[in-house]
Amino acid sequence: MPPSILVQRDYDDLSRAGADFVAEIVAARPDAAVLVATGETPMGVYAELARRQEAGTFDGSLLQVFQLDEYAGIPDHDRRTLYAWTLRAFADPLHIPHRRVVRLPGNGDIADGCAAYDRSVAAAGGIHLAILGIGINGHVGFNEPPSDRWTTTRAVRLAPETIRANARYWGQREPVARRGVTVGMMTLVSARRTLLMASGRSKRDIVRRAMRGPVSADVPASLLRDADDLTVLVDRSAWDGAA
Ligand code: F6R
Predict the structure, then answer these.
(1) Most ligand 1 atoms within 8 A of CB, residue of 139, 147, 204 to mutate
(2) DSSP for 46-80, written as a single string
(3) Calpha distance 236→93 (Å, rounded)
(4) Burial level of 207, CB count in 10 A (0-12/13-18/19+)?
């Protein structure tokens, strides 16, 4: 099935549309296994879902959350882990107990932790919904180019542009990780539903390449076009450069 590309006027509209999309899936399957990106793009969707949770018009409390990616070497209890960000932005506002948040390993035996993570995905029957952003180099999760369709959950070296982009999350001055751990493209492409979001002019060229260029490991997000059911939610500036 070709991706459906939904173009919204601006970031606020994108966030509301993203929340509608997630809410519809959760209404049909309250205990869905959801893969949750961090980064700036989905924060509006998560805030909107949190508002609806408080208003009683949405209930995400039964979801199973799967972390999408993690820094390697940041202490497990540090607030700068992407796990902590996933709790703050998604699990806690939706009252999802932490035992239902499947964490990626950032320390210790990472290969072993990745294998345990993949067993949890299998035990959940696979991912029902993947909520993703896209990096300016076409990465999804920390699947940096080149990452082919068969990559598994693994430790990776972050691309220089990813290290720079991540510095902005933590006020530029903090040292940021140079290595990470990511769910592989194999799991992402196998998700039953995929929501890929992009906002802002800086994403326009890569969104075009990912959706209109060749499906290639050099643009990992393009591989999502092989997924069962991909929805791409963009604002106008990320699609045609309009302000
Ligand atoms: C974050 C993640 C990354 C981001 C991407 C876009 O968990 O997996 O792939 O989705 O780097 O980041 P933003 O949304 O900050 O532009």
Answers:
(1) 139
(2) HHHHHHHHHHTS---TT-EEEE-EEESSS-TT-TT
(3) 29
(4) buried
Q: Which residues line ligand 1 (CB under 6 A)?
A: 37-41, 68-69, 82, 133-135, 139-141, 165
CA distance 34 to 125: 11
Output the CA 135–ligand 1 centroid distance in Å. Answer: 6
And the tokens for 93? 């506002």
- Residue 44 is classified by DSSP as H
The structural domains of the chain, with segments of one domain joined by +, span 4-239
18-47 in b/e form (b: 16+ CB < 10 A) is bbebbbebbeeeeebbbbbbbbebbbbbbe
Mean pLDDT across the chain: 96
d(CA 113, CA 132): 22
Q: What are phi and psi of 56, to 5 degrees?
A: 80, 15
Residue 196's beta-bridge partner residues?
Answer: 132, 232
Reported pTM: 0.97
Which CATH fold would you assign to the domain 4-239?
Rossmann fold (3.40.50)
Structure confidence by residue, pLDDT tens digits, 131-148: 999 999 999 999 999 999
